[in-house]
Design a protein that fits this description.
It is a single chain. The protein is mainly alpha-helical. The chain has helices spanning 26-44, 50-70, 84-98, 114-139, 144-167; strands spanning 12-14, 20-22. A hairpin with a 5-residue loop joins strand 1 and strand 2 (20-22). Helix 3 (84-98) runs parallel beside helix 5. It is elongated, with a radius of gyration of 18 Å. GO terms for molecular function: ATP binding; corrinoid adenosyltransferase activity.
Length: 177
């Protein structure tokens, strides 16, 4: 299989159902930003924390499902799709890690250890992916569970960053106003 086909040289690409769309379409922006998030998480992993690594691996697989979901304008029942169970999984992880953390009393700066700061960065890319998904949803029908998943995932990545920083002995810094 050739890596290049030349089919995208005209500024268009194929969706899952083989319809052609502009590479600047809201759909491509949405799943392209999810792809960026997935690649960014690949630079975070592995951390020094096996449980976080396991979560990030699962998330990277979930993000592939989100991409497939967004790349498919006419999904069938059997097509890959984010489901409420994916959202619940992230919520369960957040709840479990919250027990390990001190309660937040203020906003915190997105900093810390190498992996903690990278997870904060990933959170911001996740928020952008969510904004792109909301923009797509304003134009076309998409799976609302995928948008909810990205929303919850950004909270999860924030929590993972806090956990990694706490375990690495990095203090949280409040912004100065």
């Amino acid at each position: 299989m050739s890596i290049y086909t030349g089919r995208g040289d005209d500024g268009e690409t194929d969706l899952r159902d083989m319809t052609r769309v502009s590479k600047a379409s809201a759909r491509i922006e949405a799943y392209g930003t999810v792809d960026e998030l997935n690649a960014l998480l690949g630079t975070v992993r592995p951390t020094d924390h096996d449980d976080i690594n396991d979560r990030l691996s699962a998330i990277q697989n979930h993000l592939h499902v989100v991409q497939a979901d967004f790349a498919n304008p006419n999904p069938d029942e059997d097509d890959p799709a984010i489901r409420p169970a994916h959202v619940e999984t992230v919520e369960d992880w957040i709840d479990a890690y919250d027990e390990e953390l001190e309660p937040l009393t203020s906003f915190i700066l997105p900093t810390g250890s190498e992996h903690g700061a990278a997870l904060h960065h990933a959170r911001t890319v996740c928020r952008r992916a969510e904004r792109r998904a909301v923009a797509l949803a304003a134009e076309e029908r998409i799976n609302e569970d995928a948008v909810q998943y990205l929303n919850r995932l950004s909270d999860g990545l924030f929590t993972f960053a806090r956990v990694v920083n706490a375990r690495d002995g990095e203090p949280e810094e409040a912004p100065e106003y």
